[in-house]
Amino acid sequence: MKKAFYLIACMLCLTQWVVAQEPHKESVVGEWLSEDKDGKIQIYKQGDKFYGKIVWGKTSGRKDTENPDPALRSQPLIGLVILKNFTFNGKYWENGTIYDPNTGKTYSCTMKLKGNNALEIRGFVGISLLGRTTVWTRIQ
Fold first, then answer.
1. What's 113's domain CATH number?
2. Global pTM?
3. Which residues of 23-92 form beta strands (DSSP E)?
4. Distance from first CA to last CA of the chain, Å, rounded?
5. What is the pLDDT of residues 19-57, one digit of tens each?
């Protein structure tokens, strides 16, 4: 009887630990430093979706010269929304897009927290296997 009680208690503790390890819906909100440390992105929630905009960059006067729309090539990169329409599925953020201002291309994207201070950004074309991952660091 004591063994059964002990086993049940351990299982309950393990369940609580697993639930505690999953990210909270809004835990991605905040400021993040890009992997190359050349840009700061602010991730925010608007309605039930998540977005991210550039709030600082090493080349602060730079324009969006690679944008495929010629009318948008004169807009500054600071303030540019590069992460759009992410939804939280209980474990990570999905169904969003990321815009690469260096190439002017937009990719499908997912975001996953790795601990509290690292955010794995995966941009891809078609399926997630055909993509590239970068890791951003939370700014405290």
1. 2.40.128.520
2. 0.83
3. 30-33, 39-46, 49-57, 81-88
4. 49
5. 445 689 999 999 999 999 999 999 999 999 999 999 999
